Amino acid sequence: MDCVEVLEKNFDEVEEEESVDGQNVDNYIKHPLHNVWALWYFKNDKRNDWSANQKVIATFSTVEDFWAVYNYIQSASKIAPGCDYSLFKEGIQPMWEDENNRDGGRWLINLDKRKRATELDKFWLETLLCLIGEAFDELSDEICGAVVNIRPKGDKLGLWTRDASKKDAIIRIGKMLKIRLNISAEVTLEYQVHKDNSLKTGSVARCSYTV
């Protein structure tokens, strides 16, 4: 059962429960998440510096509140080029400099812009569900968040982890992500260390691990 099915199953189970005073139990009970999450939006406004363009849209801590936020905002494929969505555990900012991120890195998925309408939203939603559903099991504490970048030349989806030195854990997370997103075995995912990205002199960052 994938992440989408797990969370949808929660709703089905609630609907089947007995009512209280003639009203559905769902009116009284929400399904808490293991963490509180913050959804960020980066607006590509060249009049402001990078940090001023990065805003928290909403925070949530239940399954129902996640869906309320997700169904209200524009889908990732519809936001303007140059803009980003980020979902991070509350207290972690979507930037390399954050103390929770600075020793970590990201699994990076490059997406052809021609497949934006067919793959991007599906991959992004499944990644979000994996985050809030703690789909990486005991390795979920290593997860900081995820970012989707909408760019004219091609979109990117990155899963950010806390400690890039934990090779075995990083590889396992990459393999689990690949399975969850149903990415073909012929497609290679690359892991980039944030410190390498911050020090790079060209347009391509060094790849530390692959799956």
From TrEMBL:
<dbReference type="GO" id="GO:0003743">
    <property type="term" value="F:translation initiation factor activity"/>
</dbReference>
<dbReference type="GO" id="GO:0000340">
    <property type="term" value="F:RNA 7-methylguanosine cap binding"/>
</dbReference>
<dbReference type="GO" id="GO:0006417">
    <property type="term" value="P:regulation of translation"/>
</dbReference>
<keyword id="KW-0694">RNA-binding</keyword>
<dbReference type="GO" id="GO:0006413">
    <property type="term" value="P:translational initiation"/>
</dbReference>
<dbReference type="Pfam" id="PF01652">
    <property type="entry name" value="IF4E"/>
</dbReference>
<dbReference type="InterPro" id="IPR023398">
    <property type="entry name" value="TIF_eIF4e-like"/>
</dbReference>
<dbReference type="GO" id="GO:0016281">
    <property type="term" value="C:eukaryotic translation initiation factor 4F complex"/>
</dbReference>
<keyword id="KW-0810">Translation regulation</keyword>
<keyword id="KW-0396">Initiation factor</keyword>
<keyword id="KW-0648">Protein biosynthesis</keyword>
<comment type="similarity">
    <text>Belongs to the eukaryotic initiation factor 4E family.</text>
</comment>
<protein>
    <recommendedName>
        <fullName>EIF-4F 25 kDa subunit</fullName>
    </recommendedName>
</protein>
<dbReference type="InterPro" id="IPR001040">
    <property type="entry name" value="TIF_eIF_4E"/>
</dbReference>
<dbReference type="InterPro" id="IPR019770">
    <property type="entry name" value="TIF_eIF_4E_CS"/>
</dbReference>
